[in-house]
Amino acid sequence: MSWWSDGDDADDERDYGEYDESSVRVRPNPKGNKPRTKQRPAYANAEEGVVWTVDRGRYGVLMDAGTPDEREITTARARELGKKSVVTGDRVGVVGDTSGSEGSLARIVKVHERSTLLRRSADDSDAVERVIVANADQMLIVVAAADPEPRPRLVDRYMVAAFDAGVEPILCITKTDLADPAPFAAHFSCFDLRIVTTTSTSFDEVAPGGQVSPALDELRGVLDGHVTVTVGHSGVGKSTLVNALTGSRREVGVVNAVTGRGRHTSSSTVSFKVPTGGWIVDTPGVRSFGLGHVDPENILKSFAAHAIPAEGEPVDGIPLAEAHDWEIVDRVEAGELGDVGRERLESLQSLLQSKGGVSGRDLAAAADDARSDELG
Ligand SMILES: Nc1nc2c(ncn2[C@@H]2O[C@H](COP(=O)(O)OP(=O)(O)OP(=O)(O)O)[C@@H](O)[C@H]2O)c(=O)[nH]1
Ligand SMILES: [Mg+2]
């Protein structure tokens, strides 16, 4: 179940800098000759590739992507990388036998700076993070309209993780043949959040009536030009979706009729190229998605930044995105984002509480204090 244990210990961005090429240690040289830089020759010869999967200490790397020489090779991590983790999506420098021929094993000697890093922790009070994927710019939050039952608060969690990572969240509601997705989608109507829906017929390339499935077409449009990581509970249909979009053959599981839970069918994180453009990363479903590593201050800020006021002008003329945390609480309470906004705020406040950070009550008290300051 602990799919991340296939890879390396998660590290954080502080560690990251320590193993950067620029910080190769150069010993002082009393003779004043050129400094000794043991590793430089290896780095200079390194060829560039992208990690597409991590499996038990071996890293699948795609070389020369998009050229006639495109090939998948198997690599291991060079010792020089120290504790630095290598995760799916990493852009890496590779040396050794990069032919990809049977039995060949090359070495990753360099991990390039990441544009984004999506992580989670085991639980909200645990600051140790697990890295899920590097360099993704979109997160497809996959929930099923039914079987398993969707939970709005889990989507809130994913959105917070996405905002924290600098990744754009998109909600995908699958299995709309089993239930109407509209009531679930309505929970997020106060957000500037793109929502796509799919049914089992979305995956028959040609939908009944002879046209290419509009849902699949829309999804391809969403993915084109992006690296998109799927997240969601086991059994929601992530692998089904990835298979339909890319022609991959990821195993799909069944949802237990009694518990309504998936079987944790996928156990590794794998990227696939979408033939019409972009990359999609299939991840294993996890039971919890801890946010112990997220700065509590970012939680309400990202909420405000993506909120769409329910009606007209903001109550006090200042856009919610520019309001203080306590002001957001006040204004949502005043109905600026409707009932849906209040429900979302409550969810985020309980998230803050479970992180042991600022509680909703603290914020409400701050709002009261600020109000009485203003009054007198
Ligand atoms: N009715 C219906 N079933 C679907 C749909 N999409 C997927 N399924 C079924 O849902 C089950 C689980 O699908 P998977 O793709 O394995 O789910 P997953 O999210 O990859 O699950 P994990 O790998 O365990 O995280 C399979 O039996 C699929 O056939 C859909 O749109 N409608
Ligand atoms: Mg799967």
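qc> The longest strand covers residues 47-55.
qc> done
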